[in-house]
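FIELD: query
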Amino acid sequence: MEQISGPPAKTGTFYQTPRSHPWRPTMGYEAVEVTPLHEQPITNQLVASSYSPSGMCSDPVTFPNLVTGFERNPQHAARAALYTRYTPNEWTTSNVCTYADADKNRNYSEKVRSEAVRLMRETDEKTSQGQRDAARRLGERITDITFWRNELTTELEKLIAESAQLTDTKRNVQKALQDLEPPLHIAQECLYHRESRKGIELVHDHVEKSLLVEVDNLRASQEKLSQLLAKITKQLADCRAAQHSLEDDISHKESALGIDSICHQLNNYSRGINYYGGIEKYDPTVSTPGTWSGSSSTRINNSHSERSKSCQLRSDAESLINAVATSVWDCWSNTNNAFNNRASEMLEAKSKMQLHLHKTQQEIFDVEKHIELLRKAINDKSNPMKVAQTRLEARAHRPGIEMCRDNAHLRLVEEVCTIQDSVATLHRKLQEAEAQHQQLLRTKSQLESNLKQKVDALFIDREKCMGLRRSFPVNNTIKY
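FIELD: result
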């Protein structure tokens, strides 16, 4: 029986039989060995009625005896024997017919032999031609497989090289992303340090604006690099998928090339050839030459597309890294310049503050001397006041009419009033001087406090902040 599905089973050599019959030619369709029964002579005893099986519809065969007869008397037997003889004409005719049949059979046999020889030659030629054509087709197939295998191998090498370059670009992006952490940390530390300023020094100045711009730029750069890193990771996965597809196709083509090469080298004298019944009816193919070459072409085109995307992504990554590094460096430089300018302004303000403090201290010293002079002047008016009042008190004891409002009395009264006015004026001036002295002391205190705040702010900006920003924390600033 022929198989319905699945690979054909090996049936063996059915073109040969173990025991051929001399009276029957060996045919290709004989696949079963016929074992004859044991030869036994047929006798009357074996076919006698007593030995015949039950159910036979006819009597057993009997052979009459021509000499003695069988169920006949001898006369009847002789008579029957004369009737079984042939005439000479019949004998001659029989011989002629036998000769004619022999000639006819020989002629027919010769014709059969010639046709068989011609058919053998034709089949041999057809078989040889078919085998050569199949070998030529196998050679063409091997050429096609070799071409596509080489194309796939070349594309695979290019894809692997591109994947390696993209991996290097990924490492550069990761390094750039890590290199943004130190500047961001330093900028935030500078903002935190500047928050410790006191009083009027808590100014939203250009330095703080530059620091805020730098922090925003660093965070935006981190976001861009993170998005680029995600794209590169996805592209690497796509390239790996395309690489796996190419490797799988190359593996299949290597296997097919090995099988077809072995098939191309087979001949009629090769070892291992055998019969596989029904193999021509088993069709395991899943593609046509068009779809086969189209599949490899699609994989190559897909790999080429992934390589183009990877190349564009590498270019974008390099441009973005350089742009980020340039922007970070510009913000870093602008902030440092703002720190330097602010330090210069604060040094100038500190110098002016120190000058005003020195002048204020000198003025306080002068005011204190002036106050002492005013007090001395007030004290100096004591004795003249005593003299004038003593004179008036002494003249008040003049007797009788001598109590005259004369010019001396008027002048003494005027002198006392004048001294009293002078003392009052001096006291007012003394109060003003003392008030101004207190104001100068307050001014001095404010100047000293402001000077301390400016010194502290200058220390924060120039020592703490600029101490962190003296060197850029990235080794290579433009190209990683």
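FIELD: remark
The longest helix spans residues 88-179.
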